[in-house]
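Example S7 (structure tokens).
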């Protein structure tokens, strides 16, 4: 069960945008099916203390670079507006040269933004993998305690009687084990060889 659970965790965690908690669909009802259980890994991550702490830390780690990029983008926009305003007073060759310089700056800015996005995503995945090592045994314990025979990812359930939902119990068990993790922003990746 642990390999399947790990695969389910990683698939659900990959789909979880930055630990966001998704609203649950209203249950359709119907009879409870003995032994059929579900869990929302997204809600576990989003609702647990460790998931919330990881989200906060990730924001804090990426904020300085994000602010710097935002400042550079604002300066670029101001320079682009200034160039557009003085277009009529410039010779065509001078305007084109300045426009090309702006385009080069934009390319550098876009590359920095893309690199930061890759760093944040790599860091997020590393944090999610770290959290999943805590989640797996808790899910297994709650699964056994409820006498489950089959465990589904609640995100895959379109509706029905969700009385076998283990999410709240998994969050409670996870909160009892761990409330925070530490990690650093992943370093920039080396530029691919040309």
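Recovered sequence:
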């Amino acid at each position: 069960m642990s390999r399947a659970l790990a695969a389910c965790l990683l698939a659900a965690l990959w789909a979880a945008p930055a630990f966001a908690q998704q609203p649950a669909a209203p249950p359709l009802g119907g009879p409870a099916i003995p032994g059929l259980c579900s869990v929302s890994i997204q809600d576990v991550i989003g609702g647990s203390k460790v998931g919330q702490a990881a989200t906060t830390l990730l924001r804090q780690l990426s904020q300085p670079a994000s602010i710097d990029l935002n400042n550079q983008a604002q300066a670029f926009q101001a320079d682009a507006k200034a160039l557009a305003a003085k277009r009529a007073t410039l010779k065509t060759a001078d305007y084109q040269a300045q426009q090309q310089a702006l385009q080069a700056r934009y390319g550098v800015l876009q590359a920095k933004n893309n690199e930061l996005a890759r760093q944040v995503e790599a860091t997020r995945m590393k944090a999610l993998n770290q959290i999943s090592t805590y989640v797996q045994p808790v899910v297994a314990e709650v699964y056994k305690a409820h006498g489950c025979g089959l465990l589904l990812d609640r995100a895959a359930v379109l509706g029905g009687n969700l009385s076998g939902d283990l999410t709240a119990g998994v969050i409670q068990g996870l909160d009892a084990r761990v409330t925070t993790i530490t990690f650093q922003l992943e370093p920039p990746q080396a530029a691919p060889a040309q």
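Notes on this example. Confidence is low (pLDDT under 50) at residues 1-20.
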